[in-house]
Amino acid sequence: MKTRYSYGGDEHIFVEMDEEMSLDAFFKSLAMSNAIKDADIDGVREICPANASFQVRYDPDVIAPEDMLAKLKEMEEKAINAEKRLQTRIIEVPVFYQDPWTHECVMRFRERHQDPSGTDLDYAARINGYDSVGAFIEAHHSAPWFVSMVGFVSGLPFLYQLVGRDKQIEVPKYLKPRTDTPKQTVGYGGCFSCVYSVRGAGGYQMFGITPMTIFDADQKVSYLKDFMVFFKPGDIVKWKPIDRAEYDRILKAVENGTYKPRIAEVTFDLEDFNADMDGTNAKLMEALNDV
């Protein structure tokens, strides 16, 4: 893993841990960005974390670019030896797979897709070697996911599946982006799943939809009154498949202010996970049973 530093104009430095996504790269990026924050470097104005990288905005009138770069490289040495453990939370997110709303959108934009003859789920199941859409959906929700960044649009989480590389689901984005995607669509692009926090353009494959609001600029949703964005990097997500009746029930509860997401406090240790992925995942998901 070789870190790459790049200047972005006069006020930014981009720091990339690796060319490919991994939890090791994420944890190193997290440790570096936290170290920079804790160092309270004079002139640093903003730190923007991403999946396996981050960007620092600084004031060149306060700290020279070469001095800023030197400070960042000092932080890298600290990050290498940092503990790869997080006190975080696991969240159950209900998903209505093969719902009518994303299906309508899927069929409306077939000419922009790699395989216009089927659905996004048909295509994803086939290219990942699954015998059926049902088996693919089970693979999507059976293991937990790690929120590696939040952004692109307000509140949108990128999620990385907590399985070995040989079990990772990979699906390319649409050939041409759509001009429409239903709000709260559960999508997939590359090795990342996501939840579209707002309605709008998009290029990720569409698998289903969640009734659980994850972004509320007006902060009227009961569980978003303290902060308008639900997810944060380091969260762990367990998808829960639901049917139309359960979708309608949860949606109504969200609207009337009675819905409470199932959340449990957990510890995620990267070394423990790499040593025993299935065992670690089982412990994480067991925590939700006590909620």
CATH-defined superfamily of the largest domain: Cyclophilin-like
Which range does the strand content fall in? 25-35%
Number of DSSP helices?
8
- The largest beta-sheet arranges its strands as 5-10-8-9-7-6-11
CATH top level class name of the largest domain:
Mainly Beta
The mean pLDDT is 95
Whole-angstrom Rg:
20 Å
Number of strands: 12
Organism: Pelagivirga sediminicola
InterPro entries: CT_C_D (IPR003833), Cyclophilin-like_dom_sf (IPR029000), PxpB (IPR010016)
Keywords: ATP-binding, Hydrolase, Nucleotide-binding
Protein name: Allophanate hydrolase
Keywords summarizing the entry:
alpha+beta; Gyrase A, domain 2; Cyclophilin; four-stranded antiparallel β-sheet; ATP binding; ATP-binding; CT_C_D
Task: Tell me about this structure.
This protein has helices at 23-39, 65-80, 100-108, 120-127, 133-142, 244-256, 270-275, 277-289, and strands at 4-8, 12-16, 44-49, 53-58, 85-97, 145-150, 157-161, 185-189, 192-195, 205-209, 236-241, 262-269. The protein is of the alpha+beta class and 291 residues long. It has two domains: 4-82, Gyrase A, domain 2 (2-Layer Sandwich); 87-289, Cyclophilin (Beta Barrel). Strand 3 and strand 4 (53-58) form a beta hairpin. Helix 4 crosses helix 5 (133-142). The radius of gyration is 20 Å and the shape is globular. The mean pLDDT is 95. Keywords: ATP-binding, Hydrolase, Nucleotide-binding. Pfam families: CT_C_D (PF02682). It comes from Pelagivirga sediminicola.
